[in-house]
Amino acid sequence: MSDVHSLIVPFLLLLLIPKLTVKNKITYYLFGIIGVPIHEMSHYLIARCVGFQIDDAKFIQDPSVNNGCAGYVVYRYKPTLINEVLVVFVGLAPLYIGSVLIYFITQFFGYPIFDNNVNALQFVLDRMSTLDVKWVIYAWLVASITVNMMPSSQDLKTSVRGLLLFSLIISLISYFFKNELMEILAVFAGGLSSCITVGVSVVVPFIAIFSIYNFISSFRKKNPI
User: Fold this and answer.
1) Dist. CA 53–CA 193, nearest whole Å
2) How many C-beta atoms surround the C-beta of residue 162 within 10 A?
3) Whether pTM exceeds 0.70
4) For the chain, what are the domain ranges?
């Protein structure tokens, strides 16, 4: 159960990232060119896997001319109980697929996976002091995924009923198979927590840099020399 609880802090930090990230053309093209297509393709892939009908999809587009929408996937399904539960997996797809990608990217580049935010952030800061090409590419990929892996408000809204049903199903299963279910949830939550921790730790320095840049730019506009 402690592994399940360990997911809370990284998830809350992940919720804050979209609010803290400075939104302008620089950050959109820097993080969105990779992150947005991965976000939308995650929805698309899982929707196709569970048999939903895809009506339209745009994996990336200019949000400045599309009411702030950087991409979308429009799907439909028959209103059955099982489909309401499957909507949860479609709506939350960017979160767990993004975490899986962060894990494999981290393994590919040979960096460690941390389950502690302090240790992960310290490692990131140490690596940033060297700024070798390998680290820059890795940090860009992970940051791009992390900034865009949180399901949108619309994704969460469409998943509400399914989440309630899913919670009920989990409760019923846990009544008969409590120990086995707790072990599975602990492994899942522990892995998800570690990957989110790595992603958040990589993003924090980027947020700090762009926040300082944005502050200086705003100050110069208000106080021209």
Assistant:
1) 32
2) 21
3) yes
4) 2-222
Q: What is the pLDDT of residue 69?
A: 82
51 vs 120, higher pLDDT? 51
Provide the 3-class DSSP secondary structure of residue 76: strand
Buried b (16+ CB within 10 A) or exposed e, 100-118: ebbbebbeeeebeebbebe
Paired sense of beta strands 72-76 and 53-58, if any: antiparallel
Residues 6+ apart with CB under 8 A from 118: none
Helices (H), ranges, the chain? 2-5, 8-20, 25-27, 33-49, 81-91, 93-109, 117-128, 133-148, 153-176, 178-222
| Res. 2 pLDDT band, cuts 50 70 90 | very low
**Using CB atoms within 10 A of its CB, is residue 12 exposed (0-12), middle (13-18) or buried (19+)?**
exposed
